[in-house]
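cron nightly-structures :: item 1 of 1
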Amino acid sequence: MITEDLPLWAALPAAILLICGGTLALIGSLGLLKLPTFYMRMHGPSMGNTLGAGCVLLASILVSSALAGRMVIHEALITVFMVLTAPVSAMLIMRGAIYRMGVNAERQRQKSEQA
C-alpha cells in the first residue's frame, strides 16, 4: 500500500466537504422517514442526498488532484450525471403520483355517480 501524506490545504477542505456531505445525506434520509406526506418525503432525499453526494464527490476530486499532482476530473462526470438525473427522476416519480391520484379521484367520482 502506498502511503502519501495529503497536504493540509487539501485535507482540511476535503474533511469539511465530507462532514457536510454526510450531514446533508443524513438530513435527507431523516426527511424521508419523518415527513408526513409523500410529496414532502420526496423533497428531502432528492435534494439532501444529491447535495450530500455532490460534496463527497468534490472532496474526492480535491484529494485525487492533490495526490496526483494534476487536476483529476473523473468524478466530475459522476457529479454531472447525478445532478442531472436525481432531481429529474424525483420529479417524474412525483408526476406519476399526481397522475395516479387524479385517476383514483376520477374513478371514485365515477363510482359515486353510478351508485
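cron nightly-structures :: done
The mean pLDDT is 84.
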